[in-house]
Amino acid sequence: MSGFRFCLDLTVRKADLNEFHVAYEKYFSFFQLACDGYFAMLDHKVGSDTSGIDLIAAETRCAYKKELQLGDSIKVECRVSKIKSKAVVMDFQINRDGEICATGSTTYLFFDYSIRKVVAAPSPLVQGIQVHEDLA
């Protein structure tokens, strides 16, 4: 797999800052916004229906490379790098002016809220990911 096929443009807001720069936890918020956009592109709205199958984060990580400041225009890129029977792994990259400021990944499980259990990834969603990522 080569590059990222989904990108979300954001501007760093005052609410994203601690007293010095972007607070560490906000990077995870940026990742989640990109994830939401990625799955919306595939007609799956993350967190919108707790009666069906949705994504829940099982593990996440972030490597901070460069400081982000108020007003920075950033690109949050994401891709699905691995499809498992009951999960997907998403990779993230935050860029400012072509410079990598952070990288990360999250493992999302498919959770069926009606039975409160992790379940197999929905086939239509997996097929959409495979087509989008050119994995088919």
CATH level 1 class label: Alpha Beta
Structural class: alpha+beta
The helix content, as a percent range, equals 10-25%
Please tally the β strands and state the result: 6
CATH topology: Thiol Ester Dehydrase, Chain A
Radius of gyration: 15 Å
The number of helical segments is 2
Ends distance: 12 Å
- Strand content is 35-45%
InterPro entries: 4-hydroxybenzoyl-CoA_TE, HotDog_dom_sf
Protein name: 4-hydroxybenzoyl-CoA thioesterase
GO molecular function: fatty acyl-CoA hydrolase activity
Organism: Desulfosarcina ovata subsp. ovata
Task: Please describe what this structure looks like.
The structure is a single chain. With 136 residues, the chain is an alpha+beta fold. Helices cover 21% and strands 40% of the residues. Strands 1, 2, 3, 4, 5 and 6 form a 6-stranded antiparallel sheet that branches.
Brief sketch in words of this structure:
The protein has 136 residues and is α+β, with helices and mostly antiparallel strands. It is 21% helix and 40% strand. It has one domain: Hotdog Thioesterase (Thiol Ester Dehydrase, Chain A).
Topology:
Elements: E1 6-11, H1 24-41, E2 53-64, E3 73-83, E4 87-96, E5 99-112, E6 117-118, H2 123-132
Antiparallel strand pairs: 1-3, 2-5, 3-4, 4-5, 5-6
